[in-house]
Every structure is written in C-alpha cells, then in structure tokens.
Design goal:
Blueprint lengths: L17 H35 L6 E4 L4 E7 L3 E7 L2 E6 L3 E5 L7
Antiparallel strand pairs: 1-2, 1-5, 2-3, 3-4
C-alpha cells in the first residue's frame, strides 16, 4: 500500500527564495490599487470639486434623496428650497449630485 502515498522530501536551498515569494502579494496589491483604491479616490475628488463649485440657483439632490434648489451657500452649509417657502439647511458635503436646470418645478 505504500505505492499510493508519495514520500515528502524537503526542498533544496535557494529554490524560490525571498523576493520571489513576495511577488504574489505585490501583484495582489497592484490589482487592488487599480481596481479599488484609485477609482474611489477619483470619485471622492470629483465629489469635492462638485461641492466646492455649488452656487446659488443650482438644483441638487442630497444624500437623503431630497430634491431642491439652492438659495444660499456658506462655507460649510447650503440653504435648499425643497418646496415653495420650505427651506432646509444641509451640509455641503451632503449634496450628492447636481441636477440639470429645470428639474425642480416651481
């Protein structure tokens, strides 16, 4: 019955040493960088630029899904009119997207 089980022999020195053993980890990190980290950083940068460029009269959607028109902008907050005479103040970072002009009907 010994012919079914192969003998385990110790590997000789120097075959696939230190740097070659790290190669799979480096490749995994490179793949993660290009598929996950870099696109997320690009999306965050675009959001920061969009929030910084928000001006009075823009029509926006907040993270909570509220659609409205900006009537006032401060450094950190924006006043958004969500209905006739109803104004809410939101953090500028809570603005998720700009909408095309005319989306909000008066």
């Amino acid at each position: 019955m010994n012919f079914l089980i192969s003998d385990a022999w110790a590997q000789a020195d120097g075959a696939g040493g230190g740097l070659l053993g790290l190669l799979p980890m480096v490749l995994i990190f490179v793949v993660f960088y290009f598929l996950l980290i870099r696109p997320q950083q690009k999306k965050a940068k675009e959001h920061r630029e969009m929030v910084a460029a928000v001006t009075k009269g823009d029509e926006v959607v907040t993270n909570g899904g509220v659609l409205g028109k900006i009537i006032d902008v401060d450094d950190n907050f924006a006043s958004v009119e969500i209905a006739s005479g109803i104004i809410v103040r939101v953090q500028k970072a809570a603005i998720s997207q700009l909408m095309p002009k005319g989306t909000v009907k008066s």
